[in-house]
Amino acid sequence: MALAVVLIALVALVVLGWVASGIRVVHPQHRGVLERFGKYRKVLGPGPHVTLRFVHTLQLVDERETVQDVAVDVLTADDVPISLDLAVMSECSDPRRFVYDVSDFSLAVARLLEHHTRALVRQLSANQLLNTDGRLTDELAHSVDEVALTWGARVNRVELCRVVLPEEISEMQPPWRWQSPS
After folding, report:
1. By CB count within 10 A, which of 16, 76, 150, 174 is most buried?
2. CA 174, 165, 120: angle at the middle one, nearest 5?
């Protein structure tokens, strides 16, 4: 009789421990993507949630805005090699799509931004590039945001942080005009 009571108490403690180990807290700046046996179940909001260990998996997604630096080497329309440093501000807008539709969001945005930057800068001369007053970054943000929305993210801004010119141009006194070597 005493052995049965001890076994029941032991089983109860094991079950209680198993249930308690499944209590997960999702913080206010995160969302949790819940899967049951590897299949999408639902998105969990902030607060405590009871999950079943070995049955459910929970992937946390940070919904705060993140800043990513991207360096791009480009040629302008007049064949001036320029290095640009860009900052991309983005955030998750749909946790489910953010987890399932792209494997590495940071890498995908960096490659997409490089492609669009090269395409846009290739149409501008070095003078036009240096005199753009935000039009380039606005166009970049808009074109990258269109694709990022399909991945469950939103690109809020793209900022041009630094423009590095070739040494022979940066040593010249403004106003200058680049003449390609012939």
Report:
1. 76
2. 105
pLDDT reported for residue 78: 86
Query: What does the block give as tokens for 144?
Result: 């990258």
Q: Name the residue with tokens 């970049």.
A: 140
**How far is residue 133's CA from residue 25's CA, in Å, rounded to a whole number?**
45
State how far Cα 166 lies from the chain centre.
Answer: 31
Alpha-carbon distance of 9 to 81, in angstroms, equals: 75
Q: Looking at the DSSP assignment, which residues form a beta bridge with residue 87?
A: 69, 159
- Tokens linked to 142: 């808009």
Proportion of the chain above pLDDT 70, given as a percent: 91
User: What tokens does 167 get?
Assistant: 């040494």
Taking the C-alpha atoms of residue 139 and residue 135, their distance in angstroms, rounded to an integer, is 6
H-assigned helices in 101-180 = 105-121, 126-130, 135-150, 167-170
Give the integer Cα–Cα distance in Å for 16 and 104.
37
Rounded to whole angstroms, the Cα distance separating 76 from 20 reads 61
Which tokens is 171 given?
């040593």
